[in-house]
Amino acid sequence: MSDKRQTNPAILFIIGGILLIVSAVWITYQNIEAAQTSTALSEEEIDALVPRISLNDAKAALDTSAAIFLDVRSAEAYQESHIKGAVNIPLAELEARIGELDPNQWIVTYCT
Predict the structure, then answer these.
(1) CA torsion angle 64 49 78 94 (round to 10)
(2) Of 5, 57, 62, 75, which residue is least crowded by CB atoms under 10 Å?
(3) For the segment 42-55, what is each residue's pLDDT rounded down to a tens digit?
């Protein structure tokens, strides 16, 4: 007598389902990881979006009141020392308080 084993279709179905779930989780994880790395900006992209100015240009803007100087440090650090006339909006609050700034005014941010 030959020993023939029959595979239970329910077991194949369960194993197939587990493989599908594992594959879906792995693909989702890969997509999330790819999205996180693709949203990071390079230093060149940041410089293009937020141009830097020289110390001389910043000083001239301060002397002529051509710009608002925005100190994004904590209130405590601002109290210790800051540029005279600078506005303090801590970086953690900036998104919520951005409406306090005139969008038509040149804004120079600093954090040190």
Answers:
(1) 120
(2) 5
(3) 778 877 888 889 99
The mean pLDDT of 72-76, rounded to a whole number, is 95
Interior CA angle at 21 toward 30 and 28, to 5°? 20
Q: Does domain 43-110 have CATH number 3.40.250.10?
A: yes
CA-angle at 106, arms to 53 and 89, nearest 5°: 95
Going from N- to C-terminal start, the domains of the chain cover 6-40, 43-110
Amino acid at 87: V
- Greatest alpha-carbon pair distance for the chain in Å reads 102
- Regarding predicted confidence, which is higher, 17 or 38? 17
Residue 101 burial (C-beta neighbours within 10 Å; 0-12, 13-18, 19+): middle
